[in-house]
Structure formats: structure tokens, C-alpha cells
Amino acid sequence: MNFGTSSLDFSIQAYQEGINPPVTKPNPAFLRDIGEQGMRDLLHRFYMGLFESPIKEIFPETREEMKIAGQHSADFFIQICAGPAYFNQNRGAPQMRQRHAPFHITPHARLHWLVTFEEALQPIIKDKLSSDENIQSFWNYLNIFSQWMINSRD
Ligand code: HEM
């Protein structure tokens, strides 16, 4: 598929302490465009990026553990894009804020997390695997929902 030239906006919404802005799930068409394997590849790239990132200390220590973490995360993102409920099956109810509670997630860590995700999305953009509209919808979800995970100050 060829979706033409890019008009994507990867700007990051400023975090305001104590505010969890309303979240819209990504357009399921993003998953239809890239497929389940495409989502697994995306989360693999993302977790390998996190492994090299300035916030690597809050993530598992080994590459093997990071691969597994990437799979769990892919299960979640497939599910949130209206695919099969792999995360519920393998890990139980998402309860994302609760699952993130053991880690110190600061506003600064969120910025690194988002920038690393933006990098992981690049091959999808370059290879035109999805439309700008659907990639934008996925980014918007990350941009907003990542604010919900912040539980510590910089
Ligand atoms: C859109 C926002 C986010 C979503 C949807 C998300 C999703 C997830 C998922 C599905 C897991 C695996 C939980 C499990 O298997 O039990 C996870 C774990 C984790 N997340 Fe997030 N996350 C988000 C934001 C963040 C941010 C902003 C950070 C830090 C900057 C972060 C750090 C972590 C850490 C440290 C773990 C534990 C290690 C791991 O299993 O990956 N997350 N996240």
C-alpha cells in the first residue's frame, strides 16, 4: 500500500501534575494496516530502543527479559487496537496505572519513552505500512495515556 506524503505531528503534550486527560483508543485500522506481526515488530524495536535509552534503569536488565517485556506490551497494544485479548489471557486485567506503580515514572522519563516510541515508528512511516491518519491516532493515544503513568516528580 502507498499512503502518500507525510503530515504527521509527533508533538508531545505538556504534562500537568494531577491531570489525567481523557484518552481515546487508537484507531483499530492501525492494527489492520500493520498486522499483528507488525505490532510485535514495532514493540520489539521499541523495547530494544528502551534498552539503549537514558531510562533503561527502570526496565529489565537483560536483552532477553526486554524481548519478553516487548511481547507482553505487544499483547496489550494488539488488544487496545481491538485485536484478540492476548494481554488479558497472558497477563490478566490491564490495570495499567497499578502495574506501573512499582516504577518511578517521572515527566522526564515519559519524554524519553515517547521519543523512543517515535523512533520505533519510523520504519512504518518510511515503508508506508499505515496511513498518516492511523499512525497519528496511535501516537495521540501514546501522547495522552503516557501522562496517566506518571507517578513521581523529576
Ligand atoms: C501509553 C502509555 C503506556 C502504556 C500503554 C504502557 C504499557 C505497558 C505494558 C502493557 C506493560 C507490561 C505490563 C505487564 O506485562 O505486566 C508495561 C510495563 C512497563 N512500563 Fe509501560 N506503558 C505506558 C507508559 C509507560 C511510561 C511513560 C513508562 C516510563 C517512562 C513506562 C514504563 C514501564 C515499565 C518500567 C514497565 C515494566 C517493565 C516491562 O514489563 O516493560 N510505561 N507498560
Key features?
binds protoporphyrin IX containing FE, Globin-like, mainly alpha, single chain, 58% helix, 154 residues
Protein model, in words:
58% of the residues lie in helices and 0% in strands. It is mainly α and 154 residues long. The protein has a single domain (31-148), classed as Globins (Globin-like), CATH 1.10.490. The longest helix is centred in the first third of the chain and has 24 residues, at 28-51. The mean pLDDT is 96. The chain binds protoporphyrin IX containing FE (HEM).
Secondary-structure map:
Layout: H1 28-51, H2 63-80, H3 86-91, H4 96-100, H5 107-126, H6 132-148
The structure holds protoporphyrin IX containing FE.
Protoporphyrin IX containing FE is lined by residues 55, 58-60, 69, 72-73, 76, 91, 96, 99-100, 103, 105, 109-110, 113, 142, 145-146, 149.
